[in-house]
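FOLDING PROBLEM:
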Amino acid sequence: MKFKTEDLLEQARRDEDHSSFSSAEKTFAAEADAEAVFSILKTKLFDVDEWNAHSMLTSFELFDERGEPLATKKFAAGAFLRIALKGTMKYDWVRVDDIFEQTDELVISVKPTFDPTAENADRNVISHFFTDESVNNFCLVRRGNRVSLAVIGLDEKMNADETSGTLETVRNAAVNLGSYLGVQRGEWEKFCHHLMEDVAAGKTEA
């Protein structure tokens, strides 16, 4: 069986200049152990509180289309995710574009979007350092006794046109983008490893 994650990786390899990849993988002694870890990780990936618990510099919060915080902490298609990376002086917004599930695989895809909390929010103004062409895919896969967790970014192009002010324009400018993306991608790498190791070591429960 070919996983959707493999197709996403192939897309990333074809356009390395506009793609990113962060991952963690663990091999277990028994397939049953891998199945158990996969199941726990799948539950945690749907829970925004778990994202906050396993991130170092970033915090996350779910909102609805009216800009109201969601009572549920669970990811669902159409939900807005507010991302706060320390030191950036603003929020970035993405929307859950798709949730793909099959046996031994979960892919949560998010795309940059407008800020639903803004007064008279303009749906055409993307509040993110990438354009709305980009997509981040959070991929969980089990292959036999191996479990992998990856964040695959595709079509990552700088958003320099749709900015709401001088501060945001400066932050999105090419001179600052390399440093910013380095921190952002490093965060996803840490996120994958922290979550994988925490679950694999049995430090948390589903």
Summary: DSSP finds five helices and seven strands in the chain.
